[in-house]
Amino acid sequence: MSLHDDAQALARVVNAAGGAGFGTALLDWLHPTPLRPAHVTAFRFDAQLQARVLVAAGAGRDRIARQSAKLYAGSGLARHDRLRAVLEGDEPAAVVRVQRRDITDRGYGQQLWDRHGLVDRLSALSRGDDGVWTALNVYRDAEDSAFSSAAVRRFEALAPLLSALLSQHLARLQPAAAPGPARRVPREAAAAMLARLPGGLSARELEVCALTLSGLSRAGSALALGLAESSVATLRERAYRKLGIHGTGELFALCLRSGVGDV
Q: φ and ψ at 55, to 5 degrees?
């Protein structure tokens, strides 16, 4: 890739930050390099090291990337990930390589690696000023074999830039600031409040509305649930119709009027 083409591809990554196309743009930028990843994922870890999916994209394998990311974030198997040692430590940043042959836990290896044909992973970990960790991961599968030494060196050189790009993506996923107190509810609390509302929302509609109350944009909700943005929009509209409301502000107000919690 020429310098001009590389700059253009990187510009597309920057411009896609905050949207569902960020992962694909990132993969398109990285693929011509020695890295040639099969897919890319990224996560944000809360204080309890619970993972939230920020990015999931694959080179012709988007479904596999979404499935593996969702399983990682939603199962207890991630506790066997070698990244945990870094996340529980004091270093502000790190690059970690994990190969399938290094994994000893049977369930973790089978469900999160063998199931999707993965053989190698490189991770750029970064801890923000707020203490929150993010991880950006690139993978090779059995079709492409493990990362070469040149690919590892390339990733190590790019790690600070990759973490900065992910930080911008995360920042833009947050809803725009609005006057007055921030209207956000922890996801679990939001789900409990919504479950007590009349309207008979489906499980998926409850999930989407809970993510809305917790502050995620449509793009952020789509990434968290492994759905297309259009599906999230449809589920949200269907839920609002059942509840007799027309927007997020009315959803907050409905929870307040119903006395189901303090939002």
A: -145, 140
* pLDDT tops 70 at residue 30: yes
What's the predicted TM-score (pTM) here? 0.68
The answer to whether the beta carbons of residues 137 and 121 sit under 8 Å apart is yes
The DSSP output letter for 80 is G
Angstrom distances, CA of residue 193 to CA of 201, 221, 241, 255: 12, 18, 18, 7
**Exposure on the CB side of residue 45, measured as CA atoms within 13 A:** 20
pLDDT computed for residue 60 by the predictor: 75
| pLDDT exceeds 80 at position 62 | no
Q: Pick 256 or 130 by higher pLDDT.
A: 130
Instruction: Mark 204-232 as b/e (b = at least 16 C-beta within 10 Å).
Output: bbbbbbbbbbbbbbbbbbbbbbbbebeeb
At residue 56, does pLDDT exceed 70? yes
Alpha carbons 57 and 23: distance in angstroms, whole number:
5
What are 179-209's pLDDT values in tens digits?
334 456 677 777 777 887 877 889 999 999 8
Cα angle value 45/154/156 (rounded, 5°): 40
What domains appear along the chain, each with residue ranges and CATH number?
A: 3-168 (3.30.450.80), 187-258 (1.10.10.10)
Interatomic CA distance for residues 21 and 84, integer angstroms: 28
pLDDT for 179: 39
- The 8-class DSSP code of residue 129 comes to T
Long-range contacts of 147-154 (CB under 8 A, 24+ apart): 147/35, 147/97, 147/120, 147/122, 148/34, 150/34, 151/33, 151/34, 151/35, 151/36, 151/122, 152/97, 152/122, 154/33, 154/34, 154/35
